[in-house]
Design brief:
Structural class: mainly alpha
Number of strands: 3
Oligomer: single chain
């Protein structure tokens, strides 16, 4: 087994320790049983890189922030993400909704406490490095954040890393030898562990996972949201199609997922075209005003 410099632990062990730390910190700071807030925190931190040798240490900066400043940082991170990946906004939204719902001081403090615990446990040493390709940290966190009234419908079980790679090979079976330019489908995708395994199997073959269409569904909207974040963290590329669905009662879930994604992209395109038109009108108005001022000065 390959070990790392993180206390001699391999990535899966380190990620499990981080998940336990996060769950403990959240339960200590907040007794609401909510899963969206702490998962949202860890997901946002997963979008950060490791320390820049020529810049400040992000973990130290975040820990020094006030809870209010930290919540604004989360808003900024999610805003940047959805602007880059408009196609995922409808599935990511359950993780970010609380940030734009005027969270109270107590909730902000609990979120910041959770982030500080994750950073002290070394999250950026996993998700901010190439080690992120080897683990499903969000899956582990979600598994430990089941509320006291969780039912089997939303219970999450994190599949061990080596098993996901083996199952990933199974998902790729029947495709081309490299697996590129194919569709990998998982109707019980959870937080995307099987996708991660398939992507890792492809990289071992020297293939590029970003050429694949990743198609998945799950009954738990938080699991799907985490899967969407994971698809970015794991570098799965631009063709990630996800939806919340019970595939036992909705056999055509894949078609709906594709239709939802297309609708979101069309809407985003219309909004951007509208913004471009408004910007063009403002520019034109500024030119007209400037010419009018010059005419006045000449007169």
């Amino acid at each position: 087994m390959t070990t790392s410099a993180s206390g001699g632990r391999e990535p899966g062990q380190h990620a499990a320790a981080i998940a336990e730390t996060v769950a403990t910190a959240w339960n200590r700071s907040n007794g609401s049983g909510r899963r969206d807030v702490p998962l949202s925190v860890v997901a946002a931190l997963s979008l950060l890189g490791q320390r820049d040798p020529d810049g400040p240490y992000p973990a130290g900066q975040i820990r020094a922030q006030s809870p209010q400043e930290f919540v604004q940082l989360l808003r900024d991170l999610y805003t940047v993400l959805v602007n880059k990946r408009v196609d995922l906004i409808h599935v990511i939204y359950p993780l970010m909704a609380w940030l734009f719902d005027e969270p109270g001081a107590e909730l902000q403090r609990a979120a910041h406490d959770t982030a500080c615990a994750a950073l002290r446990a070394g999250q950026l040493g996993v998700t901010g490095t190439r080690r992120r390709y080897s683990v499903d940290l969000l899956g582990m966190v979600l598994s430990l954040l089941k509320s006291a009234n969780a039912t089997s419908a939303n219970a999450q079980i994190s599949t061990p890393g080596p098993l996901t790679v083996a199952l990933g090979e199974v998902l790729l079976s029947g495709t081309s030898s490299s697996g590129e330019h194919t569709t990998v489908s998982d109707p019980a995708v959870g937080t995307g562990g099987m996708f991660r395994g398939a992507a890792e199997a492809m990289r071992r073959r020297g293939a590029d996972p970003t050429t694949v269409t990743w198609l998945g569904a799950d009954i738990d909207e938080l699991a799907i949201a985490a899967c969407a974040i994971n698809s970015v963290v794991w570098g799965l590329g631009p063709r990630v199609v996800l939806c919340v669905a019970n595939v036992l009662t909705e056999p055509d879930w894949a078609a709906r997922a594709q239709a939802q994604r297309a609708e979101v992209l069309d809407l985003a395109g219309a909004v951007r075209r509208g913004k471009m038109a408004v910007d063009a009108l403002r520019t034109a108005q500024q030119l007209v005003d400037r010419l009018a001022e010059e005419d006045t000065e000449t007169t």
